[in-house]
Structure formats: C-alpha cells, structure tokens
C-alpha cells in the first residue's frame, strides 16, 4: 500500500480505569503525541493528576495549562477537562473521586 493511498483517520479507544474503588478511580496511562482524553462538564468528579513523563496540554474549568513531568493539577468536580499529549509519549497519573471516570470518556488519537 502506498503512502498516497492511506487516508487520515480518527481512532478512538475507550479509556478504562486501572483501579476502580468505592471512593476513587485511579489510572496510569501512556499516551502518544496528539492523543487526547476528554470528559464533558458534569461527568467527572474532583481530579488530582500528575505528569510522570512527557508534556501535556490541559483544558480544565475554563483554563488552559501546559504541564511537564513532575508537575500536578487539581481539577474541581464537574468541570469539563481535556488532556492532550504534546510530547512523543507521555505518562499521566490520575485519581478521580467517585463519580469517577465518565462512561463517555475516551482516548482520541
């Protein structure tokens, strides 16, 4: 197959929590450059997240942030949020208070 016959596509895979508890959901996820995790307003609880590797662009609670390895953020409950990996790879650690990971949350690449 030649490169000229390849069509761009949007690949979406469901985001699954690594651990689901009665009070919190926790995940450690590796994303590739340009992959994005989104949750609409009202769908996720309070979130504490840290960048373990790489860099991410974060849109949360109407603000825009750029975080690198070793930095963290707290996102208030119910706020819309989107994480976009902006390095070749990135590792994101997230803890979300129940209501937790939204059923509609997905990784978009």
Automatic annotation (TrEMBL):
It comes from the Bacteria. Pfam families: Cupin_2 (PF07883). InterPro entries: Cupin_2 (IPR013096), RmlC-like_jellyroll (IPR014710), RmlC_Cupin_sf (IPR011051). Coiled coil: none annotated. Residues 45-88 form the Cupin type-2 domain. This is Cupin domain-containing protein. It comes from Paraburkholderia sejongensis.
């Amino acid at each position: 197959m030649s490169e000229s016959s390849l069509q761009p596509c949007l690949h979406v895979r469901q985001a699954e929590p690594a651990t689901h508890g009665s009070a919190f959901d926790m995940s450690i996820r590796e994303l590739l450059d340009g992959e994005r995790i989104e949750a609409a307003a009202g769908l996720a609880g309070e979130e504490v997240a840290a960048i373990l590797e790489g860099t991410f662009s974060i849109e949360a609670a109407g603000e825009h942030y750029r975080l690198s390895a070793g930095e963290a953020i707290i996102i208030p409950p119910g706020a819309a949020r989107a994480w976009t990996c902006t390095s070749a790879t990135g590792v994101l650690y997230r803890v979300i208070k129940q209501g937790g990971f939204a059923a509609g949350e997905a990784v978009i690449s």
